[in-house]
Amino acid sequence: MSAAPPHRSASESSRRGAVSDTERRDRLEAFHATLSEQVLTLTSSSAWTDWLRTAARFHHYSFRNTVAIWMQRPDATQVAGYRTWQSLGRQVRKGEHGIQILAPVTRRKDERDAEGNQPDPSAARSGDGREGGKREEPGSGPGPRQLVGVRIAHVFDYSQTEGDPLPQLDDVRPTLLTGQAPEHLWDGLALQVAEAGYRLTVETPPGAANGLTMWAERQVLVRPELEDAQQVKTLAHELGHVMLHEPADILDRAVDLSALACRGQREVEAESVAFLVTSAHGMDSGQYSFPYVAGWAQNATDGGVETTLRETASRALTTAHRILDRLDRNNGGPAEVAEDAIPTHLHTPRRALSLTPIEARHVQNQARTQQPAATGVGR
Questions:
Q1: How many whole angstroms separate alpha carbon 269 and alpha carbon 287?
Q2: Per the domain annotation, does 1 fall within a domain?
Q3: Of 112, 132, 163, which one is at a domain's C-terminal end?
Q4: How many Å from the N-terminal Cα to the C-terminal Cα in the chain?
Q5: Which of 17, 116, 235, 365 has the most neighbouring CB atoms within 10 Å?
Q6: 69 within 8 A of 99, measured Cβ to Cβ
Q7: Does 241 share its domain with 150?
Q8: Backbone angle region of 352, left / alpha / beta, with phi > 0 → left and psi within -120 to 50 → alpha
Q9: Rounded to the nearest 5 degrees, what angle is found at the Cα of 288, between the Cα atoms of 24 and 237?
Q10: Which pLDDT score, from 0 to 100, does residue 257 have?
Q11: Which helix H or strand E contains 202, and what residues bound it?
Q12: Residue 244 and residue 114 share a domain
């Protein structure tokens, strides 16, 4: 599914050195065009739209109901009501026992009888869309609804049903990168994390995330069991967050606050930065970046995926350019990679940033005293 990033030709692959600003910006814009094209192709595929249509039918249960489901059926994977399963072409098997949850009972605020009394709550509409035993069309009738109580409802797990298979997203989910990354790329990115005043540790973040930026602790975590290429890509993603989304920097920069308020846009920006940086160093992270960006961009803005990609492009490009410029100054420029070639300079172990404690403190002190440069959008 993923398209290889537009590498340089083989005739130029032997040259190593700093890349001019214009040349790098042109390359980054080409990489971002590839990202946008692949994401738009992905989100317009039938597999994607079928899955979204199905996912919209499943409720997001409250914490209390989630615990109730887990206590009654710990192996549950996807639960829904009887009629929802029927609408998806599946039938609850005979003899299956439902999982009990609490469902809301609502009525309209302006519902009163001829004498001005509130009606019997038992006649109010139950949480599954029924009123008085008859299905009511959504949005029919005047006035907003209010909660008047709760009732016991029953849902069923996927394993308790049979029928048509549900659309799956296995072919469009992010796939972890395997193999190794270009030599020194981890160290160069780690140095920039330290320069920003953050401590990088290779340890398991809470939950299922591959990486995490902890603002209050000023710490960046990268999951240890990932392969080398995925660790480097994840570190580039977290560095994108550090450079673009640090809460303490909002008032000091010309930052679009609405963009920062939406996690979808933040994730699209950070992953776009990761894709651009790794692509510039000859890595193809499309199998992870394309579906990741597509998933977060889907509802990040009212304008949809294309609008999100357009609105985040400038900030992502500017940040990737800054990261690559700093990498060039550290290492004398990235090794140029021939078309469809694999980087030849590889390293196997994940190693910590090679700084002594004194050097590390010096770098962090410099980061605290220097004001960030306002170059491009949001910086």
A1: 17
A2: no
A3: 163
A4: 34
A5: 235
A6: yes
A7: no
A8: beta
A9: 55
A10: 46
A11: strand 199-202
A12: no
User: Each residue of 246-260: pLDDT tens digit?
Assistant: 886 544 444 444 544
> How many domains in the chain?
2
CA distance 282 to 278: 7
| Backbone torsions φ then ψ of 357, nearest 5 degrees | -55, -40
| Residue with the larger pLDDT of the pair 238 and 304 | 238
Residue 5 domain-assigned (yes or no): no
- In order, the DSSP letters of 312-372 are HHHHHHHHHHHHHHHHHHHHSSPBP--TTPPPS-B--S-------HHHHHHHHHHHHHSPP
Q: State how far the Cα of 22 lies from the Cα of 34, in Å rounded to an integer.
A: 19
Per-residue model confidence (pLDDT) at position 150: 85
Q: DSSP state, 179?
A: S
> Which of the listed residues 132, 163, 194 is the one where a domain comes to its end?
163
Residues 82 and 205 in one domain: no
pLDDT digits (tens, 9 = 90+) for 208-259: 899 999 999 999 999 999 999 999 999 999 999 999 998 865 444 444 445 4
Look at residue 3 and tell me if it is in a domain. Answer: no
What confidence score (pLDDT) does residue 327 get? 93
- Kindly list the distances between the CA atom of residue 295 and the CA atoms of 40, 242, 268, 282, 310, in Å, as whole numbers in the listed order: 11, 21, 9, 25, 16
151 vs 100: CA distance, rounded Å: 10
Residue 378, in any domain of the structure: no
* Domain of residue 235, residue span: 10-45+173-369
Same structural domain, 219 and 244: yes
3-state secondary structure (DSSP) of residue 18: coil
pLDDT of residue 4: 45
- 188 plus 301 within the same structural domain: yes
Indicate if 238 and 305 belong to the same structural domain: yes
- 119 and 16 fall within a common domain: no
Locate all alpha helices (DSSP H) within the chain, ordered by sequence. Answer: 21-43, 46-55, 63-72, 82-87, 185-195, 228-245, 257-261, 263-280, 286-297, 305-331, 357-369
| Judgement on whether residues 177 and 251 belong to the same structural domain of the protein | yes
Other beta carbons less than 10 A from residue 353's beta carbon: 16
Give me the pLDDT at residue 109, please.
66
**What is the reported pTM?**
0.56
